[in-house]
Amino acid sequence: MLVRLGREVQEVSRPLIGELGRLVAFGGLGTVLALAYTTSRILDQAGRDDRRPADAVVVMGAAQYDGVPSPLYRARLDHAIELVRDGVAPHLVVTGGKATGDRTTEADAGRSYAMAHGISPDVILVERESRTTLQSIRGVAGVMHDAGLTSAVLVSDPTHMLRVLRMASDAGITAWGSPTRTSPLERDTVARADAVVHELGALGIYFLSGDSP
Question: Model's pTM, two decimal places?
Answer without folding.
Answer: 0.84
